[in-house]
Amino acid sequence: MNTASEHFSLTELAEGVFAAIATEAGGAFSNAGIIDLGDQTLVFDTMNTPLAAKDLKQVAEELTGRHISYIVNSHWHSDHWMGNQVFPKSTMIFSTPETLEFMISELDEIHQSQSNHSNFRSLIETYEKLYNETKDESHKKNISDMISRWKFELDALPELNPRLPNMTFDSKITFHGKNRVAELFASGKGHTISDVFLALPEDQIVFWGDLGFFQCQPFIGSCDLEGWKLKILSMTNSLFKHFVPGHGPLGNQSDLHLEHQYMVTLEEKVREAFQGGMTVEDALSKISLPEPFNQWVAASARRFEANVRFLFQYFDDRM
Fold first, then answer.
1. What DSSP string runs through 207-231?
2. 127 and 271 fall within a common domain
């Protein structure tokens, strides 16, 4: 089974363990996981829109023959939990207390977007114009994919009824299933104020959430940079072989190393620019990254700009 939905493709990593990898132009935006514990089913993250989550729920139920027992929300960024609402109230949703607190704070912004679509529509119109003006076909494809994702988000707004976690934990939970054991870890500060990941020791699989961005730029805005880098390095010393990132394709230890190298390389480049007296605008125009990171930048210029601006502020705060 390869394609389960227009929003994601499905890959079986081990018997009863599936990665749902977001398509570029669909309504999922972030990846998810389906884990058959043997007598219960766990879903790791629920994607960016209820529409994508409906497909995820249907596929999970078809694959396992049962309703979903548990959902894990890996962190507070909304592209990983807007699908919570499509699952029944009997499904227990887990997060850390810090993640729940930030999710609650997100509700006001979500409700504002529901009551006023103008900013969303203006963004789409701006990028439709940019698409028409762009000559490079790869750039046009990237812009087209972004527009498509935003339209799915816009269409989802009227029916959004965000559902929050009803179970919190601050250390570790072990799910003992008939077929396998799944270990859920609260890893502390990294990509956000509080990230979690799910490990399947017997299968050597980790659902890594947004601690993992593979073959694409990590979004480092508002992160704990040192904490995140340390978490990646710690996992590279583990025996796990297969990683499902929050964004990008399935990966392995090499992808972890590349992600860490991107962070170190960009940090060094921005530090050099900052200490050399450049403005952030100068840095944005002059910083270039080596392969393969230059290709990641070309695919997502908006994220590169956000990352550089974050690092400038990061160094300024430490002066």
1. EEEEEEE-SS----TT--HHHHHHH
2. no
107: in domain: no
State pLDDT tens for residues 49-61: 999 999 999 999 9
Q: Is residue 110 part of a domain?
A: no
End-to-end CA distance of the chain: 53
Could you tell me the residue range of the domain that residue 123 belongs to?
117-159
Number of compact structural domains in the chain = 3
Q: What is the DSSP string of 121-168?
A: HHHHHHHHHHHHH---HHHHHHHHHHHHHHHHHHHHGGG------SEE
- On whether the pTM is more than 0.85, the answer is yes
Q: Are residues 96 and 191 in the same domain?
A: yes
For residue 2, name the pLDDT band (cuts at 50, 70, 90).
Answer: very low
What are the pLDDT digits (tens) for 150-160?
999 999 999 99
Phi/psi at 76 (5° precision): -90, -10
Give Dmax over CA atoms of the chain in angstroms. Answer: 61
**Residues 42 and 79 both lie in one domain:** yes
